[in-house]
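Batch job 17 of 40 flagged for manual review because the log was empty.
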Amino acid sequence: MDTTIERARRGALLGLAAGVFCIQWDAFALNLALPQIRHDLDAGGTGVQWVVSSYLLTTGMLMLGAGRLADLFGRRRLFVLGLVVFGAASTLCALAWSLPALVAFRAVQGVGASMIMPAGLSLVTHVYAGHRPGRAIGWALGLGGAATACGPVAGGWLTEALSWRAVFWLNVPLTALAVLWSRRAAESRDDGAPRHLDWPGLLTATAGLGALALFLDRGSGWPLLPALGTPTAAVLLLVLFVRIQRDSPHPVVRLALFRNLPYVVLTLTGAVANTALVLLLFLVPLSLQSEWGLPADEAGAAFLAPTAAIALAGPLAGRVPPRRAAPVTAACLTVGAVALGGLAGAAALGRYELYLASAVVGGAAFGTANALTLVITQQIVEPGRAGEASGVTKTVITVAAGLGVTLSGAATQRTGPSQTGPSQTGQAALTALAAGCLATALATAAWHFRAARRREDAHASEDGTARPWPLRGRR
């Protein structure tokens, strides 16, 4: 019996790890294949960017609803469905005959990805309930995060040696293995909730998040009217979503979730960390080639160190107890802010060793903070609504990733055709983000110690040993 349960747990963990690997693989291996895709599919202008944008749009739109759907209809069921959709879409991407077909199949791939992460996180949380679920999620994120380390190098090698289609073909056997592993896990759902779906809330949230994701990903350079109208529509739709959730008897997201201050704090700090992490992941490999003059293969080899640090962050985050999550996250953001400053300073001074060391430290710091958000937020919410919580967290982090991509575009912008050093815009982006990380770290630390003081006073009051706060102006 114990062996069967352990096999079920291991299956869920390996399934989540494989799902994370596929998602990370697509993110980092595909970027290097875009030039060949443009050539092979005769994609002129910026059309090839929709290969990335269509995926991000569907993922960002649907992840919120997917988390609650997993709670209601089965976490394993939705996780397996996401893997099947992702694998099937990867097959179609590999067979794509034109750019519009590839863009459409990438959008379907994003639908699968939107189910994999929230359903997989909540599935592992329940399978390992009472048996260190944080460590299990940390190991799954670490194993899956290996794609972050090998993606740029292996993706470039596959594209040159075989074809960009090989990047998609690799997903097919991995998703098949993930399905086989995950089917060992016992099904779990929110048994106390009726199987009713808040369709008005779900559709409103999907439309609002879609408009926001579209603006963040494609809004740069838009004319004034759509540049103002799209984010305005997103805000209005999301405000309407909140009103619908307040009045709905079966909401997609219970507003009480946002009264869970530890959850809110960790989600917001995770969003800041992910913004910085995405900036670092896009900026460093491009800078190694454009600013430091490294060939593509040497730049990929040098980039292994920062990405390996990110991959190792998952198991490290899994060992942090929930009560220590806030101060550890604040420390990570502080170290990360210093690392971002190091990137800007090293580029300005021409110090390659300092630049690479800052990238490694920043990868480890932001990777740990990001993984902590995914690990700990699952442990501090009601078990029956773990999917809902993971959907909200992943949605916020995904929107933050869109902001990171926007900032990375600014950070790599040149002020002139002959400029070889870092642009003033890039320096400003790094400096502003470093300041934001430091401010978030200070606010998180202040909140944590204030909350700890209140808990101590409450415990002391129960024991009859509480002392009143000293009054100002009295000795």
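Reviewer: the log was empty due to a logging misconfiguration, but the result itself is present. The longest helix spans residues 424-463. Unflagging and moving on to job 18.
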